Amino acid sequence: MNTPMKNHHLHPEGQFYGTATVGEKGQIVIPQEARKNMKLKRGDRLLVFGMDNDMLAVAKLSHIEKITSHLSKKLKMINEAAKNNK
């Protein structure tokens, strides 16, 4: 079963939550503590990134959308400043 391992940090910005088993349909259950910490709820959309051929990383889509929106605004400001300095 999925057993979270509390206070076992892999690095300062990450945490090891335990294991998950791939089911018949290729689904996995995200450990409860991870869902709680990420504030995941049913229906939330996640981005799944492949890292090499044997590792996955998961990010909350709403968080990525906020980051990209913020970066887009900053890039527009930078482009305007660059145009004004020509």
UniProtKB/TrEMBL annotation:
Q: Boundaries of each SpoVT-AbrB domain copy?
A: 20-66
Q: Which Pfam families match?
A: MazE_antitoxin
Q: Which organism's genome codes for this protein?
A: Candidatus Giovannonibacteria bacterium GW2011_GWA2_45_21
Highest taxon listed in the record's lineage: Bacteria
What name is this protein filed under? Transcriptional regulator, AbrB family
Molecular function GO labels = DNA binding
